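Okay, can you check this protein?
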Amino acid sequence: PQAKTLRDEFALRLAQQTSRGDFVNERPIIVYWVDVMGNGPEALRMAQESWKTQREPADAVLFAKAALLSRKPQEAAVLLQWQQDTGYQAPDLDSLLQQIRAANPKAGAK
């Protein structure tokens, strides 16, 4: 019961924020769409938009999760190049990118 109440309260705040166009940091909203609601398409849309200005490892993880949840791993192929360019590695991201790489063989090997 409390989880539903919290989810509903967050959804209301999100709707209010959306109506105002007031997004300072999209990461918590993407987490909400991925982990709470399981809404891959909305999470992917926001993650792609966020990636234009936010390119931290946590953003890469959320972008990859959203793409995989949406069953559109090709949409996150840019992360493979980002990892190659930055050299960033972490077990959680590496696992997600391995799945994206398997779905995008033309995107290049690690």
